[in-house]
Write a structure and sequence with these properties.
alpha+beta; disordered N terminus; 191 residues; single chain
């Protein structure tokens, strides 16, 4: 009789060990998925997922989070602090955002199915200081070396962001504005 009892206790012990292993796996899966969701809440390879957050950050002047939407290679090339500083300058005239609408304005493609697609998004904002336009050039990432490549991840995000008022919207003024080589553009930028 003792041997039968021993078999049951070994079976119970095995079940307990299995439950512990399954529990550890579930916790690690949940922890990993939380980190991934957190990554996508700051930076995403899809502009439509973060457009509302981007507008909120503009309204709150949260430039630390705004910089995180820029592609990593842009952040490295120009420096996070420099981009934050120019975002601060660009937001000076903006005012408090009452409402906004987002519209896709076109994209640059590539041949052969591989490369970088940059989509231009227009955000028209009604603020307490008038109507402002924000143009965002958003890269889906350069996938020429594959989607697991560092280059693909580092090129996802904002390539440049332009802010100006409705009064500034003339082709001559915009031509002058786009002659400046920096990822944040606004009237009066001195670079």
């Amino acid at each position: 009789m003792r041997e039968i009892g021993r078999g049951k206790s070994e079976g119970n012990l095995l079940k307990k060990k299995l439950k512990v292993i399954v529990g550890i796996l579930l916790v690690s899966i949940l922890a990993t998925s939380c980190r991934k969701d957190n990554f996508y809440s700051k930076r995403s390879n899809n502009f439509e997922w973060i457009e509302g957050k981007l507008v909120k950050d503009l309204d709150r002047r949260n430039n630390e989070d705004l910089v995180s939407y820029f592609a990593v290679n842009i952040q490295k090339q120009y420096g996070k602090k420099e981009i934050q500083s120019e975002l601060f300058n660009a937001e000076k005239e903006l005012g408090k955002i009452r409402k906004y609408r987002v519209k896709e304005r076109g994209y640059s493609g590539h041949r052969g199915g591989l490369g970088e697609t940059v989509t231009t998004w227009e955000i028209k904002m009604d603020t307490d200081r008038g109507i402002f336009f924000v143009y965002v050039n958003w890269s889906d990432g350069d996938d020429r070396k594959g989607m697991d490549d560092k280059r693909y991840r580092d090129t996802q995000g904002i390539k440049n962001l332009t802010i100006y008022s409705e009064d500034f919207r003339t082709s001559e003024k915009l031509e002058e504005l786009y002659k400046v080589d920096f990822p944040v553009l606004y009237p009066g930028i001195q670079r």
